[in-house]
Amino acid sequence: LEKYSSNKHQHYYCIRISLHPYHLYYSEFQQKRSTYKPSTSKNSSALRSHPDQFVYTALKKIESEEWKDKVEGINMIVQIAETSPQALTNDLHAIIVALLSECKNLRSSVSRVAIASLGHLFSALNTKMDNEIEKVCLVLLQKAGDVSNAFIRKDATGSLDDMVKNATASKVLTALIASGLKSKNNAIRTECAASVNRLLDRVGPKVALRSKDSGKLIEVLYTFAKDPHPSVRYYGKFGLQMLNQVYSLLPLSNGAETLEFLNCTVLTILMVVVFRCLTLFVKFRWEQRLEGLKRFEEMVMRNARIVASDTKVLDAFVGRLNDINAKVALEAMETYLAILYSASKYLFFSTEPNMKALLSQIITALMSHLPSRSEEHRRLAKECISESIKRIDNSALAAAVAAATKQSNVKQRPFMLRSMSINASLYRTKPHLIEVVSLPILWGNVRSPTQMNCDPEVKRAMKEYAQVLSKCIGKNALLEQANAFLSPVQKRYLEMLI
C-alpha cells in the first residue's frame, strides 16, 4: 500500500498487486474446464526429445511436499501425454496411482490440476487407460458429487466426459455402474446417469441395442428411471426414450439380420415396455390406465420373468385391481385371470418375501369387491380368488388369505372363510403352518361380536370352517387347544359348531 499526494491537503492511496505465478497459472481454470491447457515448460524441447527421463522426474516432483512442485510434476505428465504418449505406457499404473492420490489433496489448487490431468490422459492415451478406468471413474464420480466446491465438480465432470469419449464403451459402462449406480449421494447418481446418456449418444442407440451389453444398459437406465431423485429419473427416462424411438423405427422385414436382432434384444425391449406400463398405470385419465393394462397383459404373455423382476410394476398393477374407476377395476381383474396361468410360475415364488407381500395385497384388493353392488364385480372377484387358490402354491397363499380374512367385514367373511378350505389339502404336508395360520382365525371368529355371529351366512361359513379344521387336527385336539384361547362359554359354542 503506497501513499502519495497531489498537494499537501489531499492524500491518495494506491494498492500495488503482485500476482504469484500460481495465480496466473490458474486463471484459465476459472473458465470452462475444456479450455484448460497446462503451462508450457521451459524445457519443452528437451521433454520432446527425452520424454522417458522426464517421466521419472515428474513422479518425483509429485511426491514432493511442496504444492508448487506437485503442480509442476502434474504439468509435465500432461505435456508428455500430449507430445509423446507412448512414453507413459510403461509407468502408467504408477502415474495413475500418484494422480489419484493428488485428486484427494486438501489443497484445491493441486487436486484440480490432478483431476483435469486425468481427462487429458484419456484424450491422449484413449483405450490404453482401460485397465485403470474403474479406479479413475470411482474418484472422478466422488469429486463430481462434491457439492462444497463447484470448480472441482466442473473439472471432474469434464474429465468424466473425456473418459466417456475416449475409452472403450463397454469398460466405461462397467466402471460407471460399479462406481455410481448404488451410491447414496444424489449428485453422484445424477452424474453417473448423465455419463451413461453421453455414452449412449457416443455409441448410438442402434449400435447399443445390437451390442452384447444391451441388457446391462437397459437395466441401468431402467434403474435410473425409477430413482427417487428427479434429476436421475430424467436421465434414465431420456435414455430409454432414445432406445425406444430407434426400436420403433427399425424395419420389420423377414431378413435373417432383423430376426437375429429382434431375438437378441427382446428382453431389453421388454424392459422398455415395462417402464411404459408403469407410467401408464399411474396416469390420471382412466383410458390411459386401461391402455396400460392391455400392454401389461401382452408383456406378461411374452415374458413373465421380466415382469417378475420389477415389483414396482406389480405394485402398480395391484393398485388397479381396486381402482376408483369401475371400468379399470373390471379390466384389471380380467387381466389378472388372463395372466394368472402363465405368470404364476414366476410372479408368486413361495420363497420370496416380496412376493408373499404382493400376494397379500392381491387378495386384499380382490376381497374389496365382494360387498360391491355390481354383480359383475362380485363374480369376477370370487373367480379371481378361486383361480388363485388353484394356480398358486397354497403354502404361499395360505398366509395371504388368512390375513385378508382377519380384515374382512360381514359381507366379505363368508366367502373368505370358505376360501380357507385350502387347509384340508395343505394340512397333510404342512400341519404346523395350518395351525399357526388358521387356528387364530377360528378363535377370532368364535370371540367375534354378536352382530357378526348373528349373520346367517357368517354362521354357516363358520360352521363349515370349524368342521374342516376339526377333521384335519382332530376334534379332541382342537378342543384341547381351545382351552388356552377361549372362555368356557365360547368353548361350548365351538363344540356346537363342530
Q: What is the radius of gyration? A: 34 Å
Mean residue pLDDT: 78
Distance between the ends: 105 Å
Could you estimate the helical fraction of the residues in percent?
over 70%
Strand content: under 5%
Q: What's the total helix number?
A: 28
SS content category:
mainly alpha
- Major sheet description: 2 strands, antiparallel
What's the helix-strand series? EEHHHHHHHHHHHHHHHHHHHHHHHHHHHH
Shape: elongated
Give, in spatial order, the strands making up the sheet with the most strands.
1-2
Low-pLDDT runs of 5+ residues are 1-38, 248-266
Give the total of beta strands: 2
Structure description:
The chain is mostly helical. The protein has a domain at 423-498. It has helices at 21-25, 44-49, 51-62, 67-83, 92-103, 108-125, 133-144, 150-166, 169-180, 186-203, 205-210, 214-225, 230-248, 256-281, 286-302, 304-308, 311-321, 326-347, 353-367, 375-391, 394-407, 413-419, 422-426, 431-446, 450-453, 456-473, 475-482, 488-497, and strands at residues 2-5, 11-14. It has a two-stranded antiparallel ribbon with strand order 1-2. β1 and β2 (11-14) form a beta hairpin. The termini are far apart.
